[in-house]
Design goal:
By secondary structure, the chain is an alpha+beta fold. Helices cover 28% and strands 39% of the residues. It is built from two helices and six strands; from the N terminus they run H-E-E-E-E-H-E-E.
Length: 128
């Protein structure tokens, strides 16, 4: 069954672009849309150095630019929830073998035009 919720479709499009961006930068995707009691981790990726928990925010452009920077929606409450979700993800994989030595939380802001084409993608490594 396909969702007709335009917000879900917008978010899914942004997450696909963000995942492709991470892979192009050499990271391997480990999980997409991982559900926990606190919510959903958008993307979990890794390279040799970092285990990356990535929050993706997507918005539509208003004219030539976005009306609001999508990264403003990753406030203190969301950051706290992301840390709890990361803890749950790690606990569920406690015996899954070696991990990269460091962990970080990234944020990716994606802005699309009304046709669904990419206007901008901003990746903030170690956002919080």
């Amino acid at each position: 069954m396909t969702s007709t919720d335009p917000r879900r479709a917008l978010g899914a499009a942004g997450e696909r672009l963000a995942a492709a961006h991470l892979e192009a930068r050499g990271l391997t995707l480990l999980a997409r849309n991982y559900r926990t009691r606190q919510g959903e981790l958008d993307l979990v990726a890794a390279d040799d150095r970092y285990l990356v928990f990535c929050e993706v925010k997507t918005c539509l452009a208003r004219g030539a630019t976005a009306a609001v920077d999508p990264l403003v929606w990753v406030g203190p409450r969301k950051r706290r929830r992301l840390r709890l979700m990361a803890r749950d993800w790690l606990a569920a994989r406690s015996d899954s073998g070696p991990r990269p030595p460091e962990m970080r939380f990234d944020a990716i802001g994606v802005t699309l035009d009304r046709a669904g084409s990419l206007v901008s993608l901003e990746h903030v490594e170690g956002a919080f």
